[in-house]
Write a structure and sequence with these properties.
The chain has 2 domains: 4-121, Rossmann fold; 129-299, Tumour Suppressor Smad4 (Sandwich), CATH 2.60.200. The chain is 31% helix and 36% strand. It is built from 10 helices and 14 strands. It has a 6-stranded antiparallel beta barrel.
């Protein structure tokens, strides 16, 4: 089927998905893009919808939402059993506030420009990550297209998500979460194996494993990541003081974090496993998940997407 399926998260961007849908609808029509649409009704609903409509014959899916909605669509693609993942073509119209995935792969924030990308049809095939973790004693898994984080990363993410659930949004929410989390956060214990070799065992502040370069609404924690090189980039921030974090905060934005070698380790790998403090949980593409132990596996060039030329 050549028609696109548009999966809309009406709650993305503080209800922007719902409010701006008529604009998105008319722009798609203007560019002569044939599509049907459906709205998500709850968390993880986009996973179910992607699987359902692939069974119905759709092979082109547009995600209209934030990075979390795109993550759910991709998890639907990778957990369906009808066709290989590369038979499905994915596009995104960013409606959320972060758009960290799009920053790396070239998906514009503007509705008009994002829809022009769909009309142009410039394909790119990127890697996808698979994370495993535990919830209520059961091992679970989640695919991710941008990055996964634990330690301070996941604490900030959880606080941010709670504020979003209360109807608050925008970059200010993330930075207020970062500030308040920093006040109470303490370094954690972790054992890291990178490509099956012990690489670090001790106290650490935060860790980020990814395919894309950005997370947290523009933080450049993985500045050397390439989304189609068949490798994860890993940034491990070892034990630090709050004063060190504040003094070097600009490195999170300007791409120089890996140069702070005193407390930052950088790796490239195809797999990683982490045993961490039981209080540590995982986030992937901004979605709060479960607890340690964690494993990460790269699936090279397994997702077809549309990007700006």
């Amino acid at each position: 089927m050549d028609r696109w399926l548009l999966i809309v998260n009406p709650h993305s961007g503080r209800e922007s998905g719902k409010r701006d849908f008529p604009v998105i609808f008319n722009m798609l029509k203007k560019h002569k893009i044939s599509f049907d649409y459906v709205f998500t009704e709850r968390k993880r609903h986009a996973i179910e919808l992607a699987k359902e409509y692939i069974r119905k014959g759709y092979r082109n899916i547009i995600s209209a939402g934030g990075d979390g909605t795109a993550n759910e669509v991709v998890n639907g693609i990778f957990t369906q059993e009808v066709v290989p993942s590369t038979d499905i073509l994915v596009a995104q119209i960013p409606v959320g506030t972060g758009n960290d995935w799009g920053r790396t792969v070239g998906i514009p924030r503007s509705y008009e420009q994002a829809i022009e990308v769909i009309a142009e049809g410039n394909e790119f095939v990127q890697d996808v990550g698979l994370a495993t973790y535990f919830e209520n004693g059961n091992q679970c898994s989640r695919y991710f297209i941008n990055s996964a984080g634990l330690g301070f990363d996941s604490v900030v993410n959880e606080r941010t998500n709670k504020l979003k659930d209360l109807g608050k949004g925008g970059k200010g929410v993330y930075f207020s979460s970062l500030l308040f989390s920093l006040i109470s956060y303490k370094n954690k214990d972790g054992k890291f194996e990178i490509d099956n070799e012990l690489s670090f065992n001790g106290r650490f502040f935060s860790a980020c494993i990814g395919i894309g370069r950005y997370n947290g609404g523009g933080l450049n924690q993985l500045p050397k990541a390439e989304p189609a090189d068949g490798l994860f980039d890993v940034t491990l921030i070892k034990k630090v003081t709050k004063a060190q974090v504040i003094a070097n905060a600009k490195r999170l934005f300007n791409g120089t974090l890996l140069e702070y070698k005193k407390v930052v380790n950088g790796y490239k790998c195809t797999n990683a496993s982490i045993i961490a403090d039981p209080s540590i949980f995982l986030e992937a593409d901004g979605e709060t998940l479960g607890v340690s132990p964690f494993t990460f596996e790269i699936i090279p060039k397994s997702l077809r997407i549309l990007i700006k030329k």
